[in-house]
Amino acid sequence: MRSGGTQFGLAYLDAGEVGAYLERCSGKVLSVIGFGQPLPLPQTACAPLWVDIPVLGAKHSSFEVWTSDAAVAACEHEGICGTTDGKVLFASLTLPQRAGETLEALASQAYMRIFGFIDRFEYRNLLRVWHYFPQINDDENGLERYRGFNVGRHAAFVANGRSIGEEDVPAASALGSNSGSLTIYFMAGKQPGKAVENPRQVSAYHYPDKFGPKSPIFVRALSVTLGGQDCFFISGTASIVGFETLHLGDSAKQTAETLLNIRTLLQQIPHYDPAQGRMLLKVYVRHEHDLAMVQDKVRAEFGTACKAVYLHSNICRSDLLLEIEGAYFNDAR
Hints:
By secondary structure, the chain is an alpha+beta fold. The protein contains 5 helices and 20 strands. Helix 5 (291-302) links the parallel strand 18 (277-285) and strand 19.
């Protein structure tokens, strides 16, 4: 991202940087997501979204800011606040889980509203979706909460006539928060992106039923051009080969396997050039004591130019010790 915010893209910022950055990009801010300790921020088209996940590395807060090369306008429908620059639509929703309500039902409700929102504003193609909710690995009515979430998401896809394959499936991630509601933020476009799968892995939507009654719905990565910017969105990636978790209990080997999976995805895109582009990562670590080791391996893989944020979070499988998501922007244009 150029310092003036004149290009579509993403910045990860610390508490001391975010206020001036938002002021400088005033009128072109698509979305602000805060992790860790909430702080007052300058006014944007939609209020910042807060996720209760601690930031690692002696930092209290971290901010994910998406900006456009064009003027941004707010849009709202049925309680969802979003922004658009005419090329992409950003929005979020937060749904509290009431007593007696399952996460499965909440996930279905959330996606029914998301599909209604993107159809209302004619950005029908989901490109990237982020999900956060507490107790992700806990049991709920005999089913792990993450697996129940997948059942509800699947029901909404079917109810809205979305195919569960490369045509309609976004890049996505789902992580555990410390507290709060089901929190989702998403990006949608008028044109679809190009799905990229990992030849080392079975497509998530083809997982066998040992991982739940319904498979997760995401592609491993998605390539799309937005505002003249070549973008590559990497879904939450972990130490999975085929469909099985590898290196149980070994965080160092899981980190290496995860980075190999990301490297395999990047090798499939024609515009990948580490010298010409920007890589930004969000790294979710289950055990805080693994932080230094994970940081060393990420730096060895991507170098110091890569901007990485480290968060303390539970992963969607209880045997996974970390997960990494990313965004790569090619600046050759």
